[in-house]
Design brief:
- The protein has 185 residues and is α/β, with parallel strands linked by helices.
- The protein contains seven helices and five strands.
- A five-stranded parallel beta sheet has the order 2-3-1-4-5, sandwiched between helices.
- Helix 1 packs across helix 7 and helix 3 runs parallel beside helix 4.
- It starts with 6 loop residues before the first strand and ends in a 10-residue tail after the last helix.
- Bound molecules: adenosine-5'-diphosphate.
- The site of adenosine-5'-diphosphate has 18 residues, from helix 1 and helix 7.
Length: 185
Amino acid sequence: MSDRGGFTVWFTGLSGAGKTTIADIVGPELERRGGLVEYLDGDVVRTHLSKGLGFSKADRDTNIERIGWVASRFTRAGAWTLVSAISPYRETRAHARGMVEEFGPFVEVFVDTSVDECARRDVKGLYAKAFSGEIKEFTGVSDPYEAPESPEVHIRTEGMPPEESAQAVVRALEERGLLRVDARA
Ligand code: ADP
């Protein structure tokens, strides 16, 4: 395996937890440090790569399987890959980890925000619809979310500005020695 220094940061958490917001701050910072940064955002992926998939367990697993596979290819190519996807099932996340780790590190970031707080933020107006039953199979309300048991990074966003959450992620990557561009083979 030729190590081009690629890795994947995998943000998991409820809808509205802050995955995209944090990734969007971390990404430019990683670019400033010389990384080739790629993003795989669940909402975006569902408009093309996973277009047509729904929210049954089977479709959610297929979606995460696809994202995991693409993340593994990006990692192989040396990209610093930021995945933001609810990815509610532990086993499916573990499978994505396995695919990525063939080529580089997988850093799971649990963006830990309670259902109550996500519903209070209700950025996309989805929680109101989930509580009224207009949207079925909504993660954390009417569908499962299996929290990570030992994520590499655990961020409790409540009462914390997004910039601070992003800094915690960058620090964790630094501590793992992943941001040393000149150290690449
Ligand atoms: P997700 O990608 O997890 O669905 P979003 O990033 O789209 O969530 O939305 C998260 C919302 O929470 C944003 O409006 C963001 O400003 C807010 N927020 C508040 N505190 C934080 C934090 N510490 N980290 C990330 N987002 C936060």
